[in-house]
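[09:14] KT: can someone run the structure on this one? pasting the chain below
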Amino acid sequence: MQKDTYTFLNSYFEHNPMHHLDAGDILVHPSNHSPNLHFLVSGTIKQYSIGSNGEELVITVYKPGSFFPLMTALGDIPNRYYFSAPEESEVRIISVDEVKELLQKEPTIMFDLIGRLLRGMHGIISRLESIALGDAHARVGTMIAITAKRFGKKNDTGSLEISLTHQEIAAATGLNRETVTRVLRHFKEMGYIDAEHGHLYVRDISILESLVAGE
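[09:31] RB: done, structure tokens below
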């Protein structure tokens, strides 16, 4: 989302109540049937499900400027997911009708939202492809590449810095933590990434993306 679009939306919804979340707080449960939407002002929100074995599977992570849960609010699809804050975050609670009115009045905002949804779908499809067709290296590489594109900050060496733990990668790829650790060690030995104090530094996204195709 462009900065001016985020600024506009944040100002447009400022009359709505703000909800402050601490790291680990769950905002929406699978049983939640609230008619409202949430607008993420700061921090991040993780959407995930929990399997019968108690393992967590991350669907996606939202960044500021996002609306959620859109499928429930606009698609009339029952919510099956948890939405929680991995870090301190702030969200505004807004009505679906207010969002629909905004999209009708501001087509540029609507197109921006559609673009974000399509990019999100592309990321999920890429992950599904890596799970269906790729090995552990492809799954982990795809996850890191997607995260770096969305949240990476370029440092002085040109690498993209992201905050991503071994457990978070495991939850997003369906792999166990030990396998993720082994793959990351291999990536570091190959020079694809660097790792230090809970941060990953991605040197070349294209190499990680090519793993799913077996290149």
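[09:33] KT: thanks! The mean pLDDT is 86.
[09:34] RB: yep, looked fine to me
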